[in-house]
Amino acid sequence: MSYKILSLFVLILFFSCNSSNLTKNTPDKKFVNNPYFKLLKEWSDGMLKYQVNQEMGAGIEGGLMCPTCSRIHGRCFDAVYPFMTMADLTGDKKYLDAAIKLQAWAKHVERPDGSWGNDPIITKWKYTTTFSVIALGEAIRHHGHLLDAETLKDWTGQLRTASDWVYENLAFNNKPVINYPVSAAGALAIAGVVLKDKKYTLRARELAHKSITYFSKENTFLYGEGKPYRGITKNGARPIDIGYNVEESIPNLLIYAEITDDKEVKEVLVKALKSHLDFMLPDGAWDNSWGSRNYKWTYWGSRTSDGCQAGYGILGNEGPEFAEASLRNLELLKECTNNGLLYGGPHYVNRGILPCIHHTFCHAKALAVVLDANVQVPKKRISIPREKANGIKEYKEIRTWLAAKGKWRSTFTQNDWVTGEYAVANASGGALTLLWHEKTGPILASCLIGVTNREPTNIQMNFDRYQLSSTPMLTMDIDGEKYYSVKDFEAKISQKDSEDKLLVSVTGKMVNTAQQDPKSGIVTYNFEYLFTKKTVEITLRTSGNKNKMKYNLPVISKNKEAFTIDKTNVSIQKQNVILKIGATKTPTLFEGQNRVFNTEPGFEVIPLIYSVNTGDTFKIKITID
Predict the structure, then answer these.
(1) Secondary structure class of 424 (helix, strand, coil)
(2) How many beta carbons lie within 10 A of that of residue 25, not counting itself?
(3) Helices H / strands E in the chain, number of each
(4) Is the pTM of this model over 0.90?
(5) Cα–Cα dist 299/245, whole Å
(6) What is residue 30's predicted lDDT score, i.e. its pLDDT?
(7) Most CB contacts within 10 A, which of 316, 472, 571, 596?
(8) Cα–Cα distance measured from residue 149 to residue 16, given in angstroms and rounded to the nearest whole number
């Protein structure tokens, strides 16, 4: 064989073995009309617009610039996985190039101990290495054949180093909250396959079987989203968060079960996802109005987790309700997407607020999981549990009740598990934390009681001048101290349900953030919520020393929706109906504002304030015409 022929043969062999093998120029036909593929492509193209190019210089080249935070989030290289999935499905080299540049940028968050930092310099947090191991591992496991030999060697080397850190540092020790050690089971299972090392697989099994001991006996809810993991309150509540459970912990544990064919673990997860599905609203939203970490709640899920599709979508064959839930949430994600990026809630675009790219690069991973598993999209749509008008049900381990009468859906909570500062924690006291109607969607949706900058590197800030919690609540000020109806951990809830109506009664007392009564004497409240098929009536009675009080009723409404206040009557023009709120008192608007915006769960509200006095009986009637 001549030298020229031999050289040509070597070149052909080199490019066939070490090029991208991207021979397609159009997407695989079976994915063209796949809704998961369509949204992932939209997100991937959106993220590409924000990838820093070579001309910008070393240090930032390859990273994804966030349009609202004006910086590169440390975890942005998790998008290496969805970029690789898109490269494989479309044959378009731009996605492969983006993935390689992005993973090269990841070296800027490498730590000497082998971990990846959550941010380049701002924080010392590095437990998110777990999720980056999953992203890089899945990129290699499913699409490593697209890489040249040198890049593949580099990526597997990074994967081994980071997997060793996870192996050594993630255990059930109450250091990070429970989503980390649970997810580590999935991370190490992937590492075991990709790196062909049984030590990772064995540790994955150890973590997985420890994980399933943290599912509650009552409703198979994963608990531990708070410290200590096995902590339990006076009311019997545990640290449980619907967003982290359905979008991160359970899906990542499911990765372990699928890879290892661990039927024992999978059986628990199927049961858990079925019970968690009670908290999906008919429009595909997740009701986390009560969760231990609902400071990250957005209507479609949780801000920094990966998406429920990696759990419910994968389990579509286990039950049609799982596939349906995955699709409904996907449709909501699509509604909250604009110009290629996922916004933090339904009203962000309307409010004129830019999106944080963190939401997109995290949730893109879940869509990649579904596409790589070649999950079939069902043609027949079915109902989900919360569509049924089945009265009221208590969930004891979260001290929360779900009510359904006619077309109304509502949530009440006496959850006394508090994460972080009392003043900004989730509601309690028997609060009405969610009100939803089939014709309007969400009407009321709770958020934190106070303003917080918790996790500022992960959660975009609310810079509105006027801010008010979107939680309906009674408040009063005495000598500079604020007292709330939503802070009483000893409030009592009772209910009477019949065919035509449902009555929920809540009795408690006004306390401050330290659970203390006013020095001037105890002030009590009683709320009665009467649901019929057509109306919701709220009756408030108070007793105690004479004090002026305020009932805050923040009604969800885009600023494009016209509304009027005619003495005691409020009318809001929704898309096809009119939402009417009648009361025995005339409301005012908080600080004179027509709308106030809450980053969680992502809504504008009309901030109605009703002034009441101790001893008053105050009534509100909500109807939809």
Answers:
(1) helix
(2) 9
(3) 14, 23
(4) yes
(5) 15
(6) 74
(7) 472
(8) 11
Cross-strand pairs, 341: 338
> For residue 8, what pLDDT is reported?
35
Residue 426: DSSP 8-state: P
Answer yes or no: are the C-beta atoms of 264 and 256 closer than 8 Å: no
Q: What token pair was written down for 598? A: 């809450």
CB 611 within 8 A of CB 588: yes
- Nearest to residue 409, comparing CAs of 430, 428, 433? 433
Please give the average pLDDT of every successive group of 10 residues along the chain, which has 625 residues: 38 39 65 93 98 81 95 96 97 97 96 94 91 98 98 98 98 96 98 98 98 98 96 96 97 98 98 98 97 94 96 92 97 98 97 96 98 92 95 97 97 91 81 98 92 77 89 94 95 95 98 92 97 97 94 97 97 96 98 94 97 96 96
The DSSP element (H or E) to which 266 belongs, if any, is helix 263-276
DSSP 364-407: HHHHHHHHHTTPPPPSS----GGGS--EEEEEGGGTEEEEEETT
Q: CB-based burial of residue 315 (10 Å sphere; 0-12 exposed, 13-18 middle, 19+ buried)?
A: buried
Place of tokens 């192996």: 167
Whole-number pLDDT of residue 59: 77
125 SS3 class: coil
Q: Do 481 and 489 meet the contact criterion of CB atoms below 8 Å apart?
A: no
- HEC assignment per residue over 91-132: CCHHHHHHHHHHHHHHHHHECCCCCECCCCCCCCCCCCHHHH
CB-based contact 449:469 (threshold 8 Å) = yes
